[in-house]
Design goal:
Blueprint: H1 3-13, E1 19-23, H2 29-38, H3 48-57, E2 60-66, E3 69-77, H4 86-92, E4 98-106, H5 115-129, E5 134-142, H6 146-154, E6 158-165, E7 170-178
């Protein structure tokens, strides 16, 4: 078997049991920045300073590793974070007890191995244990990110709005998932106009 064929087989055979999750530290930032950059435009750009600020604000910043190598990461914030993202602020003006998934990235060669799902499920347990009602996030409709749309649909997320960002260069679908055992989303009393606000899904 060729070396390329062997590598492909190893990539396919990676399973969730091979993945270790741990909290990120400053020593990981260079690898995180490189992986983040590889996922543009589906995640926002990051500078070293921006990553340090995210690390300080994040309620959850964990890495997925396989055989000691970074294969993915997820960064999430709660409503107390001081963060200027338009998408984060959209949720903050509407909901009280939520965890916002700012970004997730998985090494291209390790996709479809369950890494993203493993990170999301870990975050869901983390958020539920701390009394949060919702997970929130967005994915791109323009430019389209069909893989992300399918992924979030399988995990039980539903659209609650859309908005344009980056001076109209992007359109995002704003998504929530009601956590098991929650009474449901608790909206704020005001809904700033100018964008769509479909009904939130019921808890089932």
């Amino acid at each position: 078997m060729s070396r390329e064929g062997t590598q492909e087989r190893e990539e396919v055979e990676l399973t969730v049991s091979d993945i270790i999750l741990r909290d990120a530290t400053a020593a990981d930032w260079a690898d995180v920045l490189a992986l983040n950059q590889a996922h543009r435009p589906h995640v926002g750009a990051l500078t070293p300073i921006g990553l340090r600020q995210l690390h300080e604000q994040a309620i959850y910043f964990r890495l997925a590793e396989a055989t000691g190598t970074l294969v993915g990461f997820l960064i999430a914030l709660d409503p107390l974070a001081e963060y200027g993202s338009l998408n984060f602020l959209w949720f903050k003006t509407r909901y009280e007890r939520f965890v916002y998934i700012d970004r997730i990235a998985v090494v291209a060669a390790k996709r479809r191995c369950g890494i993203a799902r493993h990170l999301y499920e870990d975050l869901e347990r983390f958020a539920g244990a701390r009394g949060f009602d919702l997970l929130t996030c967005e994915y791109n409709l323009r430019p389209p990110n069909d893989d992300s749309a399918r992924f979030h649909g399988r995990l039980g997320f539903a659209e609650v709005g859309r908005q344009n960002t980056e001076q109209g260069q992007k359109t995002v679908s704003l998504q929530i998932k009601i956590l098991h055992g929650s009474s449901g989303p608790v909206p704020s009393s005001t809904f700033p106009g100018g964008d769509s606000q479909p009904d939130a899904p019921s808890a089932k």
